[in-house]
Amino acid sequence: MIGRIAGRIEYKAMDHVLIDVRGVGYMVYCTDRVMAQLPGPGEVAALYTELLVREDLMQLFGFPTLVEKEWFRLLMGVQGIGAKASLAILGALGAEGVSRAIALEDWNSIKVAKGVGPKTAQRVVIELKDKAPAVMAMGQSEPTLADDVVEDVIETPATPAKRKPAAKPSNASAQSEALSALGNLGYAPSEAAAAVAQAAGETPEADTPTLIRAALKLLAPAG
């Protein structure tokens, strides 16, 4: 199983990228969102990957984080959702958006993805809502595309590897830490995940303490 690819980009197409890893080229299919994040030909990139094996086809799919890879794997397990629809959902919402939509049972956000109808979107939420807390918790301090991958690539003085500028960090780590804190306070994973997802949606740049306070307000009994 190929779980991670790190190497130089040879070329970028509309929906896939060819990455050279020490002389071997790997064709990796990605969402539009991920393709936009990747650097240009000749530069270094790293992706977590999922290998899809069928009777007449083998395809490699790439993701910037383990959270996104896990959502792809889980989405593929939903009836009526294949690789194309899974990529469409992740491309439309991103990993954090998928986590938030499923935790909040917001199937209207899921059906925004191309090729996903209302019934399929509802099925996604119903089948995956209990898995959202565990996937959200995976986001704590995980590496992303912006991490240094040059050490995975053979360099020579004549052909130094180019580094991609660091991307703006997300609050995925803050969400997972807030989720853990609420769990320690005795809240059920599903209700904690929904509160954290709502708080993160309202304040995307919030740090961990801010998310915890906002989530606690949402979880407080009315009246």
Please give a structural write-up.
The protein is an alpha+beta fold. It has three domains: 4-64, Nucleic acid-binding proteins (OB fold (Dihydrolipoamide Acetyltransferase, E2P), Beta Barrel), CATH 2.40.50.140; 66-131, Orthogonal Bundle (DNA polymerase, domain 1), CATH 1.10.150.20; 172-219, Ubiquitin-associated (UBA) domain (Helicase, Ruva Protein, domain 3, Orthogonal Bundle), CATH 1.10.8.10. Helices cover 44% and strands 17% of the residues. It has nine helices and five strands. It has helices at residues 32-37, 66-76, 83-103, 107-110, 118-128, 132-137, 172-184, 189-202, 208-219; strands at 4-12, 16-21, 24-29, 44-53, 58-63. A five-stranded mixed β-barrel has the order 1-2-3-5-4. The chain is globular and about 60 Å long. The protein starts with a strand and ends with a helix. Residues 156-169 have low confidence and may be disordered.
CATH architecture classification of the largest domain? Orthogonal Bundle
Number of strands: 5
Reading off the top of the CATH hierarchy, the class of the largest domain is best stated as: Mainly Alpha
Whole-number radius of gyration? Answer: 19 Å
Q: What is the domain total for the residues?
A: 3
GO molecular function: ATP binding; four-way junction DNA binding; four-way junction helicase activity; hydrolase activity
Keywords: ATP-binding, Cytoplasm, DNA damage, DNA recombination, DNA repair, DNA-binding, Helicase, Hydrolase, Nucleotide-binding
Domain Holliday junction DNA helicase RuvA C-terminal: 174-220
GO cellular component, one term: cytoplasm
